[in-house]
Amino acid sequence: MSEVLVLVDHVDGAVRKPTFELLAIAKKLGTPAAVFIGGAGEAAGAAESVKKYGAEKVYVVDDAEIKGYLVAPKAEALAQLVEKTSPAAVLIVSGAEGKEIGARLAVKTGSGLVTDAVDVDEDGTATQSVFAGNFTLTGKVTKGTPIITVKPNSAAPEEGEGAGTVEEVAVTISDGAKTAQIVASQPRQASGRPELTEAAIVVSGGRGTGGDFAPVEKLADALGAAVGASRAAVDSGWIPHTFQVGQTGKTVSPQLYVANGISGAIQHRAGMQTSKTIVAVNKDEEAPIFELVDFGVVGD
Amino acid sequence: MNIVVCVKHVPDATADRKFESDNTVDREGVDGLLSELDEYAVEQALQLREGREGEEITITALTVGPEKALDAVRKSLQMGVDKGVHVSDEGIAGSDYLGTSLVLAKAIEKLGAETPVDIVFFGMASTDASGGVVPAMVAERLGLPQVTLASLVQTQGDQVRVKRDGDTATEVIGATLPIVLSVTDQSGEARYPSFKGIMAAKKKPVETFTLADLGVEAGEVGAGAAHTSVEETSARPPRTAGEIVTDEDGSGAEALAGFLASKKFI
Lengths: 300, 266
Ligand SMILES: Cc1cc2nc3c(=O)[nH]c(=O)nc-3n(C[C@H](O)[C@H](O)[C@H](O)COP(=O)(O)OP(=O)(O)OC[C@H]3O[C@@H](n4cnc5c(N)ncnc54)[C@H](O)[C@@H]3O)c2cc1C
Ligand SMILES: Nc1ncnc2c1ncn2[C@@H]1O[C@H](COP(=O)(O)O)[C@@H](O)[C@H]1O
Prior knowledge:
- The complex is a heterodimer of chains A (300) and B (266).
- With 300 residues, chain A is α/β, with parallel strands linked by helices.
- Chain A is 24% helix and 29% strand.
- Chain A has helices at residues 17-29, 40-52, 72-85, 96-109, 214-223, 231-235, 266-269, and strands at 3-7, 10-11, 14-15, 31-38, 57-62, 89-93, 113-120, 126-130, 135-141, 147-150, 165-168, 181-187, 201-205, 226-229, 256-260, 277-282, 295-298.
- Chain B is an alpha/beta fold.
- Chain B has helices at 36-51, 70-79, 97-111, 134-142, 195-201, 211-214, 252-262; strands at residues 2-6, 9-11, 32-34, 58-64, 83-87, 119-123, 146-150, 152-156, 159-165, 169-176, 179-183, 206-209, 228-235, 243-246.
- In chain B, the strands form three sheets. A seven-stranded parallel sheet of chain B has the order 7-11-6-1-4-5-12, sandwiched between helices.
- In chain B, helix 3 (97-111) packs across helix 4 (134-142).
- The radius of gyration of chain B is 22 Å and the shape is globular.
- The model of chain B has no long low-confidence stretch (mean pLDDT 92).
- At the A-B interface, helix 4, strand 7, strand 9, strand 12 and strand 16 of A face helix 3, helix 4, strand 7, strand 10 and strand 13 of B.
- Residues 6-8, 35, 37-38, 41, 62-65, 100, 104, 122-123, 125-126, 129-135 of chain B line the site of adenosine monophosphate.
């Protein structure tokens, strides 16, 4: 069986959960092979984690030379791996960075790109949810190596030891790929809560909270959930933009989404409509969010 | 200085968007407009010019799309862009990201034939496809550095500083012109066209290019050249209306807890 490359999504070597979801999908398509682009000292730990979720192979690319240069060098490294391994498909986590890596890889390898898949079949057919979740679309890559970016929470991670054979890969990165560099970085303070896009439960607050996020946070902590927000709450300065859910914020599809004081504008719905169960609390019984809910409370 | 802003004409997100029987986006039956997120790109281009007083800066709005797509260029002209370019050709219909990005890249090359293009501005994503991948593809094709999702763009001479709110950190990116940039809706409200702007726009030059003008072969783009195929589109079944309780006496919290417990969330 051909290998299916899974680009490992990690923060300083700590592998994030969507990578394990992609490995589960990769098993359906071929032999899961993880690609770790990161620090040499972090590779062993990362390899150990992806092995637990079925990676048969772990390609390690040392990023000493390319760290801080955004997506272009990563796409070059991945293109060289595609050349070397002729994989059945390449799977990447659908975040801003993942999609851009996929985009550049598609141009480099003359391959089709499917973004934001919520499911991928054995034969490579990808399902997408478009127009703010109002339409479901299935499609396939017909030319080149299928490059598919998959949204977090689209598959259940499957534990199961793979061989996890580590192979270090030397790549050559062009100077042209090293032209935009991070010159300053201020890490966000860890909230101790799950990451918004990965969380199984998201509790969000909107303008209707009146700026008091304490009840939202309290409920989130009681449920072990991540905190989200509408743009109105973000624009009011109540919560940083990284917590925004919607078209210009994060897209989430948790098991449970709880919207508090959020009207349910189309741009907000675009980011949460694929949630499995939706609950809303809103004092206006006419609020559009109630069209989506499994359970709603009219009140505050 | 030569600046190009890529603007897309999209079906109105608040209208009833749908697909044609051939699974392409219905661009005829639904009202269209300049993608809201591209207005921010136009705004940033205009602000950049305003901030570099005394320099000669030309801003061109570029769109690829059917006849109606010209509206996106018009709106950009009304906001203050100097000239427009509309690439329109039957052969482009049904293009995927690879096709669209090829046409955009070729058009940008043509626009830079005499004075090289210094900055190509993009919106963060189109409101219909919302892939957010075209800027990266165009950068790849043009061999230019790319900094996407900027919430703040500053330039000085040929140096560019961009602020972006990443997933795990707020970052400042440094790069040198020429460059491809995309900007988010955090970059600052886009201006409304003034009456004067609307009148002035009528006299601004708009060029139309065909594929032949750009030296793109018909077989390179369009539905036939697409690297992806859409097999099926279906309207998502409406969510079955859920249970809604009205909280008049403080019983809402209890009812909510009951629901969450029944679904085993607590
Ligand atoms: C280009 C563009 C991109 C956008 N992107 C996004 C995006 O990514 N994400 C996003 O969320 N929005 C986005 N928006 C904004 C979106 O259109 C809405 O304006 C926004 O989602 C509204 O937020 P809200 O629901 O919190 O506020 P409102 O619409 O003001 O709703 C507040 C709700 O709270 C209820 N309420 C008030 N008081 C109480 C109370 N005490 N108890 C209970 N309920 C109460 C009200 O009945 C009302 O329904 C975007 C807009 C544009 C133009
Ligand atoms: N047909 C088009 N014409 C002009 N610009 C486009 C077109 N398609 C995409 N773009 C630009 O690319 C950005 C991202 O688009 P997308 O990758 O489709 O989300 C948009 O915000 C536009 O700036």
